[in-house]
């Protein structure tokens, strides 16, 4: 593994650890509803502060169940991840194409000047 | 940070909408200018928006025993400046309000103000100040993304405290309550968001250095290969 790949893996590992540790340490055990969403907690805080407050507008569309809601959240993440993957794929292909063109221009004996050195070598 | 549909009194909803609108309009102008002047930016713009899509869909456990999600706005703010991030963030919030019943149309103004305006500007300010002082790029990226995330949730706490002051202890009492729910929970998530933003920025440095140079994020003097890539187009 290159140094770059090692650092990137370490970054991902740290993010995973930050997400898993609260679960592993049972930090939500003392709660009525462990690991509830902060947004929902804010809603109940509002009803505590102002018990007579009634939301004056309701969502135009509401996912009919928790399953449908989590499907839509997964869809959102998948869309984003797909576009990101497409971006990095296009960039990688472009770099490889440039490198191949440079190698072809240099000729089989590599006699051309070094100004068009393969650019993908860096990665 | 999503204030649920109908959970802001009408006056507050309208006021935050009015506060956000000019930023978004200005952002749309900046976005069209950028795309016209640099059509090659479109792909990276899409990737920045996609980063916000992914991160704001991930609800992650935190040390307070509750769950919250990152915002992903620091990356776009650093790459394309905050006005353009205001548009990308608004698109994400609209998607969530319309399809997921997460956030809402009446609270869109307030949510746009916290996630798509205040957060990105705060993160960008931290990033610029640190860059000026000569800090290493990845440190500035980490702290920029960290503050873009955290400030978003602090602003949400202020918005809710303004709308629902505590009957006894007033605005400050309510702020303490909402900040306890949002800001504390968010600190480890803001660290995660900082790390993920650094990761994406590292990948961009490998794959799109010439774009980062044009956007003023990276310098050209980063090794011979990168220079040649930049001059090759």
UniProtKB/TrEMBL annotation, chain A:
Record note on quaternary structure: Forms an energy-coupling factor (ECF) transporter complex composed of an ATP-binding protein (A component, CbiO), a transmembrane protein (T component, CbiQ) and 2 possible substrate-capture proteins (S components, CbiM and CbiN) of unknown stoichimetry.
Keyword Membrane (UniProt): yes
Entry's Gene Ontology molecular function annotations: cobalt ion transmembrane transporter activity
A Gene Ontology biological process term: cobalamin biosynthetic process
PANTHER family for this protein: COBALT TRANSPORT PROTEIN CBIN
Membrane-crossing segments per the record: 70-88
Organism of derivation: Streptomyces lavendulae subsp. lavendulae
Membrane topology: Multi-pass membrane protein
GO cellular component: plasma membrane
Family: Belongs to the CbiN family.
NCBIfam families xref list: cbiN, PRK02898.1
Keywords: Cell membrane, Cobalamin biosynthesis, Cobalt, Cobalt transport, Ion transport, Membrane, Transmembrane, Transmembrane helix, Transport
Keyword hit for Transmembrane: yes
Protein function: Part of the energy-coupling factor (ECF) transporter complex CbiMNOQ involved in cobalt import.
InterPro entries linked to this entry: CbiN
Pfam families in alphabetical order: CbiN
Protein's name in the database: Cobalt transport protein CbiN
Localization, UniProt: Cell membrane
HAMAP family assigned to the protein according to its UniProt record, in alphabetical order: CbiN
TrEMBL record, chain B:
Pathway the protein takes part in: Cofactor biosynthesis; adenosylcobalamin biosynthesis
GO BP, sorted A to Z: cobalamin biosynthetic process
TM ranges: 41-58, 79-102, 108-127, 139-161, 181-204
Keyword Ion transport found: yes
Entry annotated with the keyword Cell membrane: yes
Subunit composition and interactions: Forms an energy-coupling factor (ECF) transporter complex composed of an ATP-binding protein (A component, CbiO), a transmembrane protein (T component, CbiQ) and 2 possible substrate-capture proteins (S components, CbiM and CbiN) of unknown stoichimetry.
Protein name: Cobalt transport protein CbiM
